[in-house]
Structures are given as C-alpha cells and as structure tokens.
Amino acid sequence: MSVQPIISILEKLEKMHKSLLEHAYKKTELVKNNDMEELDKMLKVEQSHVAAIEQLEQLRQKKVVEFFQLKGIKVSSPPSVAELLEVIEDEEESQQLSDVRNRLLKVLDDLKKQNDLNQQLIYNSLQLVNVTLNMLRPQPEEINYSEKTVRGGNAPRQSLFDSQA
Predict the structure, then answer these.
(1) The domain containing residue 83 runs over which residues?
(2) Does 151 reside within a domain?
(3) Quick check: is 113 in a domain?
(4) Of 26, 2, 151, nearest to 90 (Cα)?
(5) For residues 35 and 31, what is the distance between their CA atoms, to the nearest angstrom?
(6) Does 78 fall in a domain?
(7) What proportion of the chain, given as a percentage, has pLDDT over 90?
(8) CB 103 within 8 A of CB 90
(9) What angle do CA 155, 156, 160 make, to 5 degrees?
(10) Whole-structure pTM value
C-alpha cells in the first residue's frame, strides 16, 4: 500500500491550517481596530475550519491505522506520522511524507504563536475595559465608623486601659 492518500490528507491539513493562520493575522487587526462585529464573523468561519480539520484528522488516523494493518504491524492507538516514517520502505514516499509533515509542523507553530499574541491582545483589552469601568463607577462610601461619628464630634478620647494601675 502506498502512503500517497496519507500525504494527500496531510497536504489538505496544511492548507486548512494555513487558512486558519491567515484568519489569525486578520483577527489581530480586528482586535487592534476594536471591530467586534467582524471578529464575531471571523470566529464563526474559524469554527467551520476547525470542524473540517477534525474530520481530516480522523480520516488521517484511519488511513494510518489501515496502512499499519496492511503491513501486519499491531497498533493500540492511532500511530503518529513520525511512527509511520519509521516503517515506510520507499525512500521517495518517505521524503514526501517527511516534507509535508515538516511544513505542517511549521504552520502549526506559526498558528500557535499568532493565537498566543491574539489572546494577549484580548486580555490587555479586557484589562483596559475593567480599569476604565472602575474609574467611572462611583466608589462606595466607607461603612466603617470613624471616631468622630462614634463620639459625636470633638469629645476627648478615653483609653480603656488604665496605665496607672
């Protein structure tokens, strides 16, 4: 059995993740420009991308398990692409699979970095909103009793401790 179907699935996964990366860059600009309506639309598009990626990943796992079964190798959990690379005998297919795996890993790393940046931007925006709200809200008056309100004005202070005893 050839690993070409698996390579094809990995290329589709790479394409979907590149699309998510482009959306992440756009999302950064939307957060900077405070465009919440477009950001909401972007999140819905991303959800459809994630669903498609999940389906492709399930298909990839199924194909890898089938490949191992046809080779007569027992697997308990879906094997990784790295494990697949170890058993491929055709040098050309092994190189193709390795190349597409490395490209996908690079896109995933870039996507993680961009999403981390977006998360930090959103967190900072929320902090700014909270600080602004706290400044605009009236501060409650102190509910503790002060000495003047307890004694009724300027009464001399008496100590409860008798120091002459």
Answers:
(1) 4-136
(2) no
(3) yes
(4) 2
(5) 6
(6) yes
(7) 48
(8) no
(9) 115
(10) 0.75
